[in-house]
Amino acid sequence: MQAIADRLGGTDRMTEFLRYVVDRYTFAPFTTLEFAGFLKDYSGVDLRAQFLNWLYNGREPSASSGASLQGPADWKTLDLDPPWLRRRAALSGGR
Q1: pLDDT tens-digit profile, the chain (95 residues)
Q2: Which of 1, 3, 23, 34 could pair with 62 in a Cys bridge, judged by C-beta atoms 3.0 to 4.6 Å apart?
Q3: What is the CA radius of gyration of the chain?
Q4: Collapsing DSSP states into helix, strand and coil, what is residue 59?
């Protein structure tokens, strides 16, 4: 969040942005990339490539320019299944 605040111009601007998001999207679920879109709509700062780099490559947003993000083949694989589902699948032979 500090990297985003720095790009916006400080913590006061970040607080204003977060108020903007809360005012418009309270109780409305949104994805991380939609959040990055809100940031672009609010400030003109486009950090979608940095968010993708952070999510899929595990790199710090401030440490990457987005240029190192080549595409889905380069993304690390995330297994978001809860552990009990993986255990159940292993016990049932993957079915």
Answers
A1: 888 889 889 999 999 999 999 999 999 998 888 999 999 999 998 988 888 888 877 766 555 444 444 555 555 555 666 666 666 666 666 55
A2: 3
A3: 17
A4: coil
Tokens of 67: 């240029």
CA atoms within 13 A on the CB side of 78: 9
Give CA separation, 33 vs 9, 82, 91, in Å.
Answer: 21, 23, 36
Backbone φ and ψ for 85, nearest 5 degrees, come out as: -70, -40
Q: How many residues does the chain have?
A: 95
Give the predicted TM-score (pTM) of the model. Answer: 0.57
What does the DSSP assignment read for 62-91?
GG--STT---GGGSPP---S-HHHHHHHHH
